[in-house]
Amino acid sequence: MIKNTYLKEVLEKVRKRDGNEVEFLQTVEEVFKSLEVVVDRHPEYQQMGLLERLTEPERSITFRISWVDDNGQVQVNRGFRVQWNGAIGPYKGGLRFHPTMNLSIAKFLAFEQTFKNSLTGLPIGGGKGGSDFDPRGRSDGEIMRFCQAFMTELYRHIGPDVDVPAGDIGVGAREIGYLYGQYKRIKGVWENGVLTGKGLAYGGSLIRPEATGYGAVYYANEMFKHENVDIKNLTFALSGFGNVTWGSAGKIAELGGKVITISGPDGYVHDPDGVSTPEKIDYLAVMRSSGRDKAEDYAVKFGLPFHAGQKPWAVKADVVMPCATQNEIGLDEAKVIVANGTKYIVEVSNMPCRNEAIDYFQKNGLIVAPSKAVNAGGVATSALEMSQNSMRYSWSAEEVDLKLKVIMKNIHDESAKAAADYGLGYDLVAGANIAGFKKVAEAMIAEGII
Ligand code: 2IT
């Protein structure tokens, strides 16, 4: 329960105005809980309206996307771009194409992204967007026409120094290619820093596809070192099989840990031998590009039983790493995970745990590594892609990987230090929120009331 009267007042305002946006409200409550100690020390924030300003996007755009499917039928989708906070750099954050996409999800992601991007130490503000377009089962031609229609509106709101979108769920290198092509056609300029996650041939960065998963494992490994445990002795339960699961599984295998589950919307697979050979890890990428969205394909390919309609959390593992989407773990799942003797929760997808689940884990002595810190390697490497585009130069894979490693270690260390500075021990959740907030707050104060 929040006691600080200013924070309570702002939260009440958010509940009153945006109470129907459940995901957005969830993330505001989560962040405010951590910020209480900071706001207690800074009563001047109230007069500056600092928290009211931080809980309202600078700009929020919704738009219509009309396009023609392969049968000649006109389809209409809804597009979103939420430009949350530009105090420390151009808005930056991914685009999600998923049928559940709505304004609440765009706002929660953009709010989270603001603190995440601040944690990277790089000059990027927070933004997020996407569409309720469902790419599943769509032909390549349909994907291209949809992306072109989407960019035909979005182009006027973005730019390399304005707002730089990237991928998220349902948006990978293929979609970024079509989006960039249409941007270039409309603007008639070569501004490839306007999007990240591009293909290598036109300004993408080496390691960007791997970066979210690799970064997550680099961060987790800092936590394991802090706890004096060796990753080689740990088992990992992962959800999902997409880009983030693929990158995480690859790096865990390389460092000698063992991934024993993957999942999809259709159910999960338990692979007791480990998702560890190059063949198995490569197959995750094949499953993703097939567009079938089925984890069952892995079970069939490698002769394993498939657990239809279930999440992987019943499988005992030392580390639980949700990598699929928001709210994968509620209180019921948290109870199963604690009873299994799991020690570490490494959130890789954005907001995979409900607030009650995080509380339950922490009360039971598990260490929770929060998504806005853990998955920041993706956007950090996007910022490195922007740097390379500005320089009209590209770094080797080793150079990018080394920078990523340093960034993830810094995020871990800064978060641990922020929590310790406020007497909160090794609380990485509070530490990430505090460290991410402080830089944004400092910049907002310096820039005046805008
Ligand atoms: O959630 C995220 O940080 C992303 N989807 C990546 C954003 C980016 O701009 O690379």
Residue share in helices? 40-55%
Q: Counting H and I runs of at least 4 residues, what is the number of helices?
A: 17
- What's the gyration radius in Å? 21 Å
Low-confidence stretches: none
Write the H/E string, N to C.
HHHHEEEHEHEHHEHEEHHEEHEHEHHHH
Largest sheet: 7 strands, mixed
In oligomeric terms, what are we looking at? Answer: single chain
Judged by helices, strands and strand pairing, the structural class is: alpha/beta
Content of β-strand: 15-25%
Give the averaged pLDDT, no decimals: 98
Number of strands: 12
Strand order of the largest sheet: 9-8-7-6-10-11-12
Provide a descriptive summary of the structure in words.
- By secondary structure, the chain is α/β, with parallel strands linked by helices.
- Helices cover about 50% and strands about 15% of the residues.
- It has helices at about 5-20, 20-40, 45, 50-55, 105-120, 140-155, 175-185, 210-225, 245-255, 280-290, 295-300, 330-340, 355-365, 370-375, 375-390, 395-420, 430-445; strands spanning about 60-70, 75-85, 90-95, 125-130, 165, 235-240, 260-265, 265-270, 305-310, 320, 345, 365-370.
- α5 (about 105-120) packs across α17 (about 430-445), α8 (about 210-225) crosses α15 and α16 (about 395-420) packs across α17.
- The longest helix has 25 residues, at about 395-420.
- It starts with a helix and ends with a helix.
- The mean pLDDT is about 100.
- The site of (2Z)-2-iminopentanedioic acid has 12 residues, from β3 and α15.
